[in-house]
Each structure stands twice: as structure tokens, then as C-alpha cells.
Amino acid sequence: MANNGQKIPVAILCGGKGTRLREETEFRPKPMIMVGDKPMIWHIMKTFAHYGFSDFMLCLGYKGEMIREYFYNYDWNHSDVLLELGSKKITKLRNGHHEENWRIWLIDTGAETLTGGRLKRLAAHLDDIGSDIFMATYGDGVANVNIAEVLAFHRSHGKLATVTAVRPASRFGELMIEDDLVRSFKEKPQTSEGWINGGYFVLHRKVLDLIASDETIFEAEPLRTLSEMGELAVYQHHGFWQCMDTYRELELLNELHQSGKALWQVWQ
């Protein structure tokens, strides 16, 4: 699905250490954990690309070099090529891949930087692109969210930010919703019911002004401030959403993929 030529970048938080999934993250960054035969980050990017958004700003940190190497070698590893051994000349053949129009900013946002600080470090690159708004999500979850609808909803209300709310079991930031606005934001309450922060944000560039430093957790003060200002709208997603926070959740995603029930693969 086309996005009418809009160059709205998608920021993906890829820098955390993923300590709750240490079985895998000891060896690779969380977004590079495999779901089926592709890393999690690829699945997330494919969802956005399905709706025509193919400019990605990857906020790298822990083991970010593995993400760099994966995409640097992507064309070589996913295309048919003719390699002439003597001259080392490489000719790309007709059978390529469907990701050729992706543009990927690989940005080192620091090993210890928190989520708000990682987004703040994108400011200069967003200025270069010249877009007043950008999208953002986490590098460890998938959904069949209609990205085009989220963007249209954001543009309809005129607020500074939109967060996508989902309804799984709670371990995440709880949203109190009233009239399509977030009235309060509680990060990871002990007990929670109802809607939670599912990521898939649409943000105005001005939101970065609410982020103080590398030590700022985006889900804490910035989102609380936006909700208190009445500037945090919510798109309620009733479909599939699943994070990959534990090894059991990784197994679940792979089971869904292998059984043909991977509802997030909207590009299929």
C-alpha cells in the first residue's frame, strides 16, 4: 500500500540489552533474534513498508554492529548475483528482493542511553529530512496495526503525539483513556487491567523538546507531561499484538510463524 510519496521516517529503538531474554541477547541484540528465518527487526520494518513507509532510523546501542552488518550485507545475501572470481566483478541478476527501496539510517545512540535519550539523538537527522512528524516503535514487538490508519488518526486530532494502545496481559505502561486522549500514563504498574502502551507512536518534532537528556525514559516524564497537557492522543488497536520480552514469548512467535498463524505478517 502506498503512502502517497510521504517521506515520514520511522524510528525504531534497537539499543537495549534485553536482559530478560538473556538466553539470546548474550550473543546478539534483541532486534536480531530470529523469528522464523528473519530477525525481529525485519518483521517490524516489513509492516511499515507494507504501508509505504520505507525510511528507517535505527537507534543502535548494545551490539549495534550486528545490525549494521546485517543490513550492509543484505543485498548480497538476498539477491541472485553473478560473481566473476578473477575480476571480482559482481553483477546483480533479475531475482532480487522486495526491500530495495528501503533507506536505513544506522545511528549510534549510545550503549547506556535510555529510550527518550535515543529518540532525542535523532533530532539532527530529522532536521535533515525536514519532516515535522515521525513514527517510532520498539524493536521487540510485532502487530497487525494499520499504520496508515494510525497516521490518518494522528493528523485528524492535531495533538503533538499519538500512542497505539493494545489489550494484552499487563506488564507495561497503563493508559487511562477518555475521549480519545490519554488522561494519565503510568509506567509498568504492579497490577493493571485494560489498555497498555503498545508502541507505534506518531510524534511531532516538538516532542523531542520534552526529553531532557540521555537519562530520560521516554515512557516516564515526556509521556506523562504530554498526557497532562492533553497532547497525547490514543489509537486503540483491537487486533494482534505481541512483544518478545521473554523466551516463552519468543517461542510463541516462532510457533505462530511455523503454523501459518503469524497475523502480523500483513505483507503476505
From TrEMBL:
Gene3D superfamilies: Spore Coat Polysaccharide Biosynthesis Protein SpsA, Chain A. The keyword Lyase does not apply. Keywords: Nucleotidyltransferase, Transferase. Its EC number is 2.7.7.33. Residues 12-215 form the Nucleotidyl transferase domain. GO terms for biological process: O antigen biosynthetic process. GO terms for molecular function: glucose-1-phosphate cytidylyltransferase activity. Pfam families: NTP_transferase. PANTHER family: GLUCOSE-1-PHOSPHATE CYTIDYLYLTRANSFERASE, GLUCOSE-1-PHOSPHATE CYTIDYLYLTRANSFERASE-RELATED. NCBIfam families: G1P_cyt_trans. This is Glucose-1-phosphate cytidylyltransferase. It comes from Planktothricoides sp. SpSt-374.
